[in-house]
Structure formats: structure tokens, C-alpha cells
Write a structure and sequence with these properties.
Elements lengths: L9 H7 L6 E4 L5 H8 L4 E5 L2 H10 L4 E4 L13 E7 L7 H14 E12 L6 E2 L5 E2 L4 H7 L4 E9 L6 E8 L3
Parallel strand pairs: 1-2, 1-4, 2-3, 4-5
Antiparallel strand pairs: 5-9, 6-7, 8-9
Helix pairs in contact: 4-5
Length: about 180
């Protein structure tokens, strides 16, 4: 896997993210969104579980910060560390038993009053694997919403990705102060 193509949600960043706010990209892949965020007023750091993708990110964007971190623990990131948190099309690759814990942990990382953007590819009925053996977990959005029940919902939508033709669920919440 040389790179990951992810649906772009950049208008959601500028619409909801706190300008000049410290931003984390969980599952940053090869660093494309981290670079965009930094160039557009959202100082960002990238975190990923793939050492290969982190090496690509560091090679492409040597001036930016990238670190190894794995869901659900994200041990290298402190609680209340970021104003904005992005996790785009990542959680559907987790075992369904890890999704609630991962969402809880990511919300802990967001500062009070901060913004949490989360998206995933919707898989209906049963888990699937693609040609690279990547998991696409089938789970109900209620599982995620329940973990975010103490937040203020700013966006909750399903859209069809122009790049993949797949349904993507997007949630944007503000952590209560």
C-alpha cells in the first residue's frame, strides 16, 4: 500500500476547526492532510500506526511532525492536548470491538471546547476485506454517537465520496468546556 486515497473534507476543516488551533490527524497516512492543515492555519501533527506510511509522510514533508501511535490507546498523546482532532476514514479498519474505546480515547485528546471531526466508510450488514486484506468493519453509527453523547453535535451526515463512490459518514462535534 503506497498511499491512501481519502475523501476530501477540507471545507469541513475551515467551517468547523478552530483557526490557529493545535490540530491532530489520527491515521494521517502519508501526511497529505497534515500538510494541508499546516498550510491553511491549523498547526497540525500526524499520527499513524503504519511505519511505512509515516516514513512516506516524513519524506514528503520533512518540516512537519509525525509520530507512531495506534488506536485505541494513542499512548504518545496527552489528554486535552489538541484544539482540533481529525480522524478521517480510519475507524472502519478497526476490529468492531475497538471502535467505542477508540472514539472515547480520541475525544479525551481534544481540549474542552475543541472540535472532533470523525468519518468512516459505511459498510452494511457484514465486515468486508478488500484486495489488500484491509478490514472494512460493519457497525451501527449509534455505537459512535453513544460515545459522543456528552458533546455538541455540529454535523452528522452521510455522503457519497466523489473519489470512491462509497458512502462516508461524517460527524463533527464540539467537546463541552
Amino acid at each position: 500500500m503506497s498511499s491512501r486515497r481519502r475523501p476530501t473534507c477540507k471545507p469541513q476543516f475551515t467551517r468547523f476547526f478552530i483557526k490557529d488551533g493545535k490540530t491532530a490527524d489520527i491515521g494521517c497516512g502519508s501526511g497529505r492532510e497534515v500538510a494541508w492543515l499546516n498550510a491553511n492555519g491549523f498547526p497540525a501533527e500526524g499520527f499513524d500506526a503504519s511505519d511505512g506510511l509515516l516514513a512516506q509522510a516524513r519524506s514528503r514533508y520533512p518540516q512537519l511532525k509525525f509520530a507512531h501511535a495506534e488506536l485505541p490507546e494513542l499512548n504518545v498523546i496527552a489528554t486535552d492536548a489538541f484544539d482540533n482532532l481529525l480522524c478521517e476514514t480510519v475507524i472502519m479498519h478497526l476490529d468492531p470491538a475497538q471502535i467505542a474505546q477508540s472514539v472515547r480515547r480520541m475525544l479525551e485528546i481534544v481540549k474542552p471546547g475543541g472540535i472532533f471531526y470523525l468519518s468512516w466508510r459505511v459498510t452494511k450488514d457484514t465486515d468486508l476485506r478488500d484486495g489488500h486484506d484491509r478490514l472494512y468493519a460493519a457497525f451501527d453509527a449509534k455505537l459512535v454517537r453513544d460515545e459522543l453523547s456528552a458533546t455538541v453535535s455540529l454535523l452528522d451526515e452521510e455522503v457519497v465520496s466523489a473519489s470512491s463512490g462509497k458512502t462516508i459518514h461524517r460527524l463533527v462535534v464540539r467537546k463541552r468546556a
